[in-house]
Amino acid sequence: MQLIKNIKHGDTIIEVVFAFSVFAAVAIFSVNMMNSGLNNIQRTLETTMARNTIDSQADAIRFIHNNFLAERNFSDNTAQFQLIWNELKTISRDPRTLSSGDPVGASFDVNDYTSCEGVYEGEGTRTSQIITYEAFVLNPRYIVPYYGAGIKYANDEYSNIVNNIVIGGVDEGEKNGKLTTSSLYPRIIYGTTLTDTDEGLKEASIFQRAIRAEGVWDIIVYSNSRNKDRSEYYDFYIRTCWDAAGTHTPSTITTIVRLYNPEMIE
User: Fold this and answer.
1) Is 176 helix (H, G, I), strand (E, B) or coil?
2) What is the pLDDT along the chain (266 residues), one digit of tens a residue?
3) Where do runs of H (alpha helix) occur along the chain?
4) Rounded-to-integer distance, Cα 139 and Cα 163, Å
5) Against a cut of 0.70, is the pTM above it?
6) DSSP code at position 264
7) Which of 7, 15, 112, 226: CA 20 to 30 A from 38?
């Protein structure tokens, strides 16, 4: 009887290469899916934080306006929010300069820029939104009422307080220094203040002074009237721009808050 030997063959080089190719394809696909999932989570978080920043600006704007409405018949010495509202009106922009046919006005749309840096520094023929339209940011942690001439708040004159509430606007230095592009997502960075005590300058414990505003800015546009003080309404454009995770184009969110002038609607 002839014995038949079982001859076992190993995998060929083609089979080994094919197996490694399949493994590599599955591994790459899995890693890409994980990265895509993480980017989606990160973008969702960044969008949520951006909306929170926008909401805080909108709430601060409405708060100032509502208090102005409640006390607009008061005298200048007793009106507590009139100065802040008047400060906002001074930096409102003429809508005729924001038309699409105007080369400067055409840059009013943040989506016309290819990068967030262009919004701040200008891009090509488009100018900087921050400089051109007197952009500003409200510090919602520092909105305090006016108590009358000579009365200080935290050992500071109220005129200085207003500058710490309305950041930017007509202040060229603040727009260039405190309104900056975003490193993470649209946000306001807060820091401690320095107070003058018997021991010299001492750092306060509360974080209320805005050091800078990253990726967020506000622009005011008054209605078609040639006189901004006699405008029917004021549109507050609250804009954001940041480089979201896993994207090649800037991410933007814009909200418009329209507030009416009581002197014109009554």
Assistant:
1) helix
2) 555 555 566 567 777 787 888 888 888 877 777 777 777 788 888 999 999 999 999 999 999 999 888 887 766 656 678 888 888 888 887 776 665 444 444 445 676 778 888 888 877 777 788 888 888 999 988 887 777 666 666 666 776 777 778 888 766 555 667 898 888 889 998 876 555 554 444 454 457 778 889 999 999 888 866 777 778 888 999 999 998 877 778 888 989 999 988 877 66
3) 13-71, 82-90, 103-106, 116-121, 129-132, 158-165, 172-177, 262-265
4) 10
5) yes
6) H
7) 112
Classify each residue of 210-246 as buried b or exposed e, where b means 16 or more C-beta atoms within 10 Å of its C-beta. bebbbbbbbbbbbbeeeebeebeebbbbbbbbbbbbe
Complete DSSP assignment for 118-136? HHHH-BTTBPPHHHHTT-E
Q: What is the DSSP letter of 97?
A: G
Whole-angstrom distance, CA of residue 152 vs CA of residue 160: 10
DSSP 36-87: HHHHHHHHHHHHHHHHHHHHHHHHHHHHHHHHHHHHTTS-TTT-SSHHHHHH
Burial 49-83 (b: 16+ CB within 10 A, else e): bbeebbebbbebbeebbebbeebeeeeeeebbbbb
Read off φ and ψ for residue 93, nearest 5 degrees.
-110, 150
SS3 call for 115: coil
- Residue reference for tokens 């506000």: 218
Q: Which two tokens stand for residue 115?
A: 């990068």
